Amino acid sequence: MKDAGIVTVVNSAVKGAVKASAVENDSIRINMVSPGWVTETLVIMNMDTAPGLPAKEVAKTYVELITNSTSGEIVVAMKS
User: Fold this and answer.
1) What residues have CB less than 8 Å from 39, skipping those under 6 apart?
2) 76: Cβ–Cβ under 8 A, 6 or more apart, which residues?
3) CA 79/CA 42 separation, integer angstroms
4) How far apart are CA 28 and CA 51, in angstroms?
5) DSSP element (H, E) containing 75
6) 27-49: per-residue pLDDT in tens?
7) pTM over the 0.85 mark
8) CB 69 within 8 A of CB 32
């Protein structure tokens, strides 16, 4: 995939910010969901949807983090 290197850098920076923020500020809960490819996005981009995870499933991951997590968690939500 073209420009995958910059995507990796950006994702790593966001993960680092989440971890650091969780350590530095205990008055808020901050977490991150990294969904990989979302099926609906692949459809819009006219790409193969096989590696995609439906947005509904990604949303379930967000809800799980909101209801059952501590701060600083990073969850990768990908198709199994």
Assistant:
1) 49, 52, 53, 54, 55
2) 34, 35, 36
3) 13
4) 34
5) strand 74-76
6) 888 889 888 889 999 999 999 99
7) no
8) no
